[in-house]
Write a structure and sequence with these properties.
Serine Threonine Protein Phosphatase 5, Tetratricopeptide repeat; 2 domains; mainly alpha; elongated
Length: 239
């Protein structure tokens, strides 16, 4: 039986029952057949699946040419290596030109520090509530922190609660809730609004909305340090 037909049928998964028996017999008893199968498997694995049709056409051209088998095999290896390098370069280019929002989020996000509550205890009830909220925040117990920050916001109309609630939601990967809360923090137009704007951009990245993040950081001159330089750097990666 034609060995080439058996090899092609094996890779195309079209062998009949009788052909499969013949294939297995050759594989067990014909050393050259086994070597050729191993070589073609290695070649196939090194080539991107979308290029398979083109490579098969190239292989047929080489089969028709009067090239010695050893030299022919070298040509196959060169082709496979060239295609592998090409796809690697394409992947690297796409990554550097269009980095994933999740990757950018990991690169730029840092938790905002507790600048509200002092570490020492207070006997004042209002201060105690603030300390409870931010002690939970410092322990990274963000669900607990949100609960107390909401109470603070309702009872004392604090101007920082929305910012920290938004950051807590980012930490909890509740990006939709983070976006909603940080939008409110930005709209307050107070001391913490510019900081909230930076974290809103990061929440958009976390939520896979890079276009909305770009809309914020393109006006990086309006942000304040330490976010101004980071916003400019993020803008260059998103534009």
């Amino acid at each position: 039986m034609d060995k080439e037909r058996l090899l092609n049928g094996y890779f195309d998964n079209t062998l009949t029952a009788s052909e499969l028996m013949a294939f297995n017999e050759l594989l067990n008893n014909d050393e050259h057949f086994a070597e050729e199968l191993a070589f073609r498997k290695n070649l196939k694995n090194s080539i991107h699946i979308n290029e398979r049709a083109r490579i098969k056409a190239t292989v047929k051209q080489f089969e028709k040419a009067t090239i010695k088998p050893s030299l022919q095999r070298k040509y196959f290896t060169w082709i496979a290596a060239a295609i592998t390098i090409t796809f690697t370069l394409i992947a690297v280019y796409q990554y550097t030109q269009n980095p994933k929002p999740s990757v950018l989020f990991q690169e730029f996000y840092t938790e905002y520090p507790n600048i509200i509550s002092p570490s020492e205890r207070s006997k004042n009830d209002k201060d105690s509530l603030i300390q409870i909220a931010f002690a939970a925040y410092d322990r990274q117990e963000f669900k607990e922190a949100i609960k107390h920050l909401i109470i603070l916001q309702e009872q004392q109309k604090t101007n920082y609660s929305s910012l920290y609630i938004g950051i807590c939601n980012i930490e909890l990967k509740n990006s939709v809730a983070a976006i909603e809360t940080l939008q409110k923090a930005v709209a307050l137009n107070n001391t913490y609004s510019l900081t909230a704007k930076w974290y809103l951009a990061l929440a958009y990245l976390q939520n896979n909305q890079p276009d909305l993040a770009l809309e914020i950081v393109k006006d990086f001159n309006k942000l304040e340090e330490p976010f101004k330089q980071e916003a400019e750097r993020l803008y260059k990666k998103l534009k």
